[in-house]
Amino acid sequence: MKPKIFFPVCVIAMFLLLPSCENRQKSPSEYSHSADVIVYGGTSSAVIAAVQVAQMGKKVILVSPDKHLGGLTSGGLGWTDTGNKAVIGGLARDFYHRLYLHYQDDSAWKWQKKNEYGNKGQGNVAIDGENRTMWIFEPHAAEKVFEQLVSEYEIPVYREEYLDRAYGVSVGEGSIQTIAMLSGKTFRGEVFIDATYEGDLMAAAGVSYTVGREANTLYGEKWNGIQTGVLHHGHHFKSDISPYVIPGDPASGVLPRISTEDPGVFGEGDHRVQAYCFRMCLTDHPENRVAISRPPDYDSTQYELLRRVFASGWTQVFAKYDPIPNYKTDVNNHGPFSTDNIGMNYDYPEAGYKRRMEITDEHTSYQKGLLWFLSSDPAVPAEIREKMSQWGYAKDEFTDNGYWPHQIYVREARRMVGDFVMTENEVLGKSPVVQPVGMGSYTMDSHNVQRYIKPDGFVQNEGDIGVHPGDPYQIDLRSLLPFSEECSNLLVPVCLSCSHIAFGSIRMEPVFMILGQSAATLAVTAIESKMGIHDVSYDTLRTSLLEDGQVLELENIN
User: Fold this and answer.
1) What confidence score (pLDDT) does residue 28 get?
2) For residue 15, what pLDDT is reported?
3) Out of 75, 153, 405, 410, which residue is the most buried by the measure of CB atoms under 10 Å away?
4) Helix (H/G/I), strand (E/B), else coil: 157
5) pTM
């Protein structure tokens, strides 16, 4: 069985709520731009890729649909999922070194003394003095470093520029010639890098990709397809809880945020993607706290299922309020009903811009409502309500967005299907990687994918998988490359060619930075050697990667 492969379609709705192609009276030089390499995206991978091109002496332009640079790294995910830090080298390690230097300055500790914070973490060291790196940090500190990088390397950045996905990608003789934005700006380059979370440029260029989970039989995997009955991590219902408005009565209807669809057959593939959320930056420090208020569209019935979870005795609300500097926290999902908005994002990967905004707004409404519910609803245990009332938004974070993260956590969207597909077999060391361009080490981590009704009439979550690879693993060069006949000058370091469950490990922000640098190195090497990106000698590329501090293998790993 082949994976479901999608090709770009014309999405007219994306033009709504976005700038139209205006200023057509301008001269071509005002809206036409060119460089050796065009990087599309505002993620951490995009910034690092652009820096690497500039560092290698080639002209680069960073075209970002986002106003803020850094994606999730500057968007609230300050509790870095690192795994084995020894595999993080090159510009990625330099990024965390720059954060270390930031926090060596006493002025960075505005609300908290440095020695009060120390090296907190559940096995995750924040300040690594020996290696001069900082792995846990505030959102604004990360964004400051990204801005310093593009300034230091004098990289032109075009912000809030959205790719015209219907008509904006000009392809000739198997390669991208130009890309056009909805604003009318066009960008020409020899090589293009799609470093978005969504893979929009990849899709619009006609490159094969998939969305959702592959069947386990496709690549000989165990943990990829539908995983009904598999309960990892603890983010599932541990008590029998009725999904019906009147408990036990199907005729009364189903509570909000529970699917009535058949969950599917164990091990088979489906269209569903793991849940999204916002990684909120909250604080309990009174001088920096903005009180949580009742959202205008608050609907307490959306949280009825959580009322029943509390009634069952569950109390672990604050288990993933991970501490970051200055009395703040990176809040992540925890438990059967939490910040993950399960099942509300299935159409996001392929959606037009307008629909993505609607999905993002719905996730915002859900999470803000959840915070208000936890601090005010009588069904919430009193000790939880009292503790929740001490938390609020950090007034010095996301100041131009109402103290709310500017980046939704797109845990997965499209994934390219290329000549080489990274699977759990490579991650678990069962199959060799012969052309490594970086390494990963984090658990194969998929958040819940659906919330459904079991045959016994009770509610359950599905898709939450956590399988540790044991040793760090290598990521193959070919997983960054489309089929050569589909596009000969595009590299994809974020929505790379891999299975759903392999992406569960690869999708960590340090790995995206590593792969962004490697993609950029290949792009420049191809340009300098006047070769296609598919034709560059791996040995040549490997030499350059190692010279730049990339880690391609580790020996004697315990």
Assistant:
1) 56
2) 38
3) 75
4) strand
5) 0.94
